[in-house]
Design a protein that fits this description.
The protein is α/β, with parallel strands linked by helices and about 850 residues long. About 45% of the residues lie in helices and about 25% in strands. The chain is elongated and about 160 Å long.
């Protein structure tokens, strides 16, 4: 759709003179062309009667020209139609080339157009007039020439003179028009902004492209400056224009700031301009307007400001560098100390990681054999006591290894969402027993406490460790305060402590009334192996363990201490929006075993032998492997395995995570339990156990191993029980020999074929076992069967293809497909084999019995195949 015309602009910019009268013949408005030909100002005309403004002949108010014009207006008002005056002489003012104004009679051709209101009455009269004085003068010249012919001049000579004069006038007009266009192009293309303002209201007459770019493209021409640029009001520029118009003195501005709204509704933007207000002085000395010319200096001003900022910044850097140079020696010493500390921490961390695995393996061998030995000396009190002492030493060694790993930030964490206030309250009895009656314990828990996500057991160790340190600092008597609340560490705090990330934290503060720390002790408090306790009373790893745990958990720890007044340790743990998880109940009942199959993967022969003996004693069937590659071969052999118990750090090309991944791909229902004294980055990333990973840290007790394995196997049983087999079809009448089936077993792995055949025979079925689908097809053609029991992966034809062939040839024959892939039967096969029972591998006796019972009730005598 075409955009509407701006008739106001069209009216104002028209080169032809237009003016508008109301019904009383009073001026409403006039365009610039009209004001030029009448040497008038709009403010002098608006509201005045046309005959008052231009009486033609003041001495003869009823002269012919006035009558002609008045009669034309009357016809328009009465007849409400357009009226034309082809030629009317009328005296109007004209501006001379010298700048003066003279009143002279000129000839005009005028058209008067009525503008009607809603009732059809004439509301306004629009006059369009043309100055035809030159044409009239030419006509008069022609008449004079004709009169001269009577005196002997030829008509052709006279006409030639007239046309030559007309051609000269036309050429002069063309030259003037070209000059006007040239000046207009120069005005428009000038690099600086320009505009021309007329009269005391500073009405825009002209404005070039640069001026419109400066103020924003908007309608300016014909509008007073206060109306066109309302946002400039109050900035002093209008007052400067008034002063220049009044005094006639130009004004020059340098780098002056003006705020402009370049788009409707947009915010004000700053511009900086150099400009001059030059008064336009007429011949009589009167100032009729102002010419504005200038340059937009905004980019230069911004560059100068930026340069000044850089200069100030450079000066500040010079000052800072000067100060840094003055203190460089102290900074160098501090940097050296920090580097040495970092190197020491890194060295101890590497030492810890390297030693922890072998150290914990040794502890595991000692612990496992001591626990086995305990069962052999039941009733021997003296030996039992010595074994308990040895096991206590093993536990202390395990704690020492755990503290080393915590300090090095290499302990595997299993964070869960918890409420710190609830955890502290749950530990109240434990703390009071550990601290004794002479230490008063006060807990202050803030309302609306946020949750945090940390390792619950490790946090409990931290609290207990700090409480015991506080008790020792108070010499067994004093007050311990544990506070928990919400905290916000802002950017300013993070700037002072570069290792801190700004954000929301849960704060735990543990304060005592002990002896406090000296500045020297405070500075080294977190260093490993640093202790102020007497020889043999402490390892120097307590606070190091706290520091490592908090940092590994993404938190921050700070010590505040004053000698003689006590110490306060504040721990900031990151907030979590997860719901707090209740801790799982720790098993404390009798140790349970089982009959499931467990594959033990351990490269240390002594550890492997101990674990195998413990698990065998608990009743499990135990398979063993010395590395990942051997374990994977056992899994791929098809032997049923319920749980994989593997060390994390192992030699060989197959790492433990890869072993677990491939084993789970082959046996989807397999449980995987990792064990290690040092996890490296195999199953721990960012200091936290990978999701879904179960870990039993070395060294562990027999009871811990038994409970962990039993718990995981019970969870496996529950998941398997929740799986639903395909819905069986309604049962048909039971065949003779209830519960006994003739089964065709198809399995290419000899070990699996032998064990499966034995299991089926043990529960009362008749089994024919073959190694391929082709052999099964031959058997089906010769013997009757109630059930086809087939593996998926077979040499030659697959088990699924065999099942499709059996469904086509023997529709009533029941089929069980055994596979470790739950998607073995999918797509089009799932429609054709809709009544097939899928038995997931690995399967045990109970699962096989359930699958066979499901098809037994559905196998009628007619289902038995007959040779073709």
């Amino acid at each position: 759709m075409q955009a509407p015309f701006d008739f106001r602009t069209l009216f104002e910019l028209s080169p032809n003179p237009y003016m508008l009268l109301d019904r009383e013949l009073r001026y409403v408005t006039a365009n610039a062309a009209y004001l030029r030909v009448t040497a008038s100002r709009l403010e002098d005309l608006v509201g005045r009667n046309i005959f008052e403004a231009f009486p033609h002949d003041p001495d003869d108010p009823a002269n012919a020209s006035v009558r002609m014009l008045r009669e034309s207006f009357s016809r328009v008002l009465t007849e409400r139609t357009l009226d034309t005056l082809a030629l009317i002489p009328y005296r109007v003012p004209r501006q001379t080339e010298g700048g003066g104004v003279v009143v002279e009679e000129r000839y005009w051709s005028a058209t008067h157009t009525p503008l009607l209101d809603g009732r059809g009455e004439v509301a306004f009269i629009l006059q369009h007039t043309m100055d035809v004085t030159e044409l009239q003068q030419l006509k008069q010249a022609v008449r004079d020439a004709e009169a001269s012919m009577e005196e002997g001049l030829s008509r052709n000579q006279l006409m030639g003179g007239v046309f030559a004069r007309a051609q000269a006038v036309q050429e002069a007009n063309r030259t003037l028009d070209d000059e006007r266009r040239h000046l207009r192009r120069i005005f428009e293309q000038a690099p600086g902004f320009m505009c021309s303002l007329r009269g005391p209201e500073h009405v825009f007459e002209l404005a070039n492209r640069s001026y419109l770019q400066l103020v924003g493209h908007r309608e300016l021409l014909g509008k007073p400056v206060r109306e066109a640029l309302p946002e400039v009001d109050g900035q002093g520029f209008f007052e400067l224009l008034d002063r220049v118009l009044t005094t006639g003195e130009p004004f020059i501005g340098h780098n002056m700031r003006v705020q402009l709204q370049r788009e409707p509704g947009a915010p004000l933007v700053d511009a900086f301009v150099d400009f001059v207000y030059q008064p336009i002085v007429e011949a009589d000395g009167r100032v009729s307007g102002i010419f504005v010319q200038g340059h937009d200096m905004t980019a230069q001003k911004l560059a100068e400001d930026e340069l000044a900022r850089h200069r100030d910044h450079l000066e500040e850097l010079v000052r800072e560098r000067t100060l840094a140079l003055e203190t460089s020696e102290a900074e160098r010493r501090q940097a050296e100390a920090a580097l040495l500390q970092a190197q020491k921490m890194e060295a101890v961390g590497k030492l810890t990681g390297g030693v922890a695995h072998d150290f914990n393996n040794l502890l595991q061998v000692v612990s496992g054999n001591l626990q086995l030995l305990q069962r052999d000396v039941v009733g021997d009190t003296r030996t039992q006591r010595r074994l308990e002492t040895a096991l206590g030493a093993v536990e202390r060694g395990a704690r020492l290894a755990s503290q080393l790993l915590a300090f090095a930030r290499r302990q595997p964490l299993a964070p869960t969402a918890l409420n710190l206030g609830r955890l502290v309250r749950d530990m109240d009895d434990l703390l009071r027993r550990a601290l004794g009656e002479d230490v008063e314990v006060e807990t202050v828990i803030a309302g609306g406490l946020w949750n945090t996500s940390v390792d619950r057991n490790q946090l409990e160790n931290v609290i207990l460790n700090l409480a015991i340190n506080a008790r020792d600092a108070m010499d067994g008597r004093g007050k311990l305060t544990i506070e928990a609340g919400n905290a916000m560490l802002d950017d300013h705090y993070a700037m002072l402590h570069p290792e801190v990330t700004p954000g929301q934290y849960v704060l735990m503060a543990i304060s005592d009334t002990g002896t406090g720390m000296t500045p020297e002790v405070l500075e080294r408090a977190f260093e490993p192996f640093f202790t102020t306790k007497p020889e043999g009373r402490g390892t120097g790893l307590g606070l190091s363990m706290v520091y490592g745990f908090v940092k590994q958990s993404g938190g921050h720890v700070k010590i505040y201490s004053e000698l003689g007044h006590g110490t306060s340790i504040k721990i900031y743990l990151p907030r979590t929006f997860q719901t707090a998880v209740q801790p799982a109940e720790t098993g404390t009942g009798l140790v349970e075993g089982g009959t499931e199959t467990i594959l033990v993967v351990e490269d240390d022969a002594a550890v492997r032998a101990t674990v195998v003996e413990v698990l065998t004693e608990l009743g499990y069937r135990v398979l063993k492997a010395h590395d990942g590659q051997s374990a994977l071969a056992v899994i791929q052999s098809g032997l049923p395995v319920d749980l994989l118990f593997t060390d994390v750090v192992m030699p060989g090309p197959v790492r433990s995570p890869e072993l677990a991944r491939q084993a789970k791909a082959l046996l989807p229902d397999l449980e995987v339990l990792f064990t290690s004294g040092y996890t490296e980055n195999a199953i721990v990333h960012g200091g936290r156990l990978d999701p879904g990973v179960s870990l039993l840290s070395k060294p562990y007790r027999r009871e811990d191993l038994a409970r962990k394995i039993r718990s995981m196997l019970k969870g496996r049983e529950q998941r398997l029980a929740a799986k639903q087999y395909r819905e069986p079809v309604p049962a048909a009448p039971e065949p003779e020999g209830k519960g006994t089936l003739r089964i065709l077993l198809v399995e290419d792995d000899a070990d699996i074929r032998e064990s499966a055949s034995e299991l089926m025979t043990d529960i009362g079925h008749t089994v024919r076992a073959v190694a391929s689908a082709e052999a099964a097809s031959e058997a089906l053609a010769k013997e009757p069967f109630d059930l086809l029991f087939t593996d998926v992966t077979l040499p030659g034809m697959s088990g699924v293809a065999l099942a499709r062939e059996v469904v086509r040839r023997f529709p009533a024959l029941r089929i069980i497909i055994a596979s470790g892939d739950s998607r073995a039967v999918s797509g089009e096969d799932s429609k054709v084999l809709s009544r097939v029972v899928l038995l997931p591998k690995p399967y045990d006796l109970n699962q096989m019995e359930r699958a066979l019972e499901q098809v037994a009730v559905d196998a009628a005598p007619t289902a038995r195949t007959r040779p073709a």
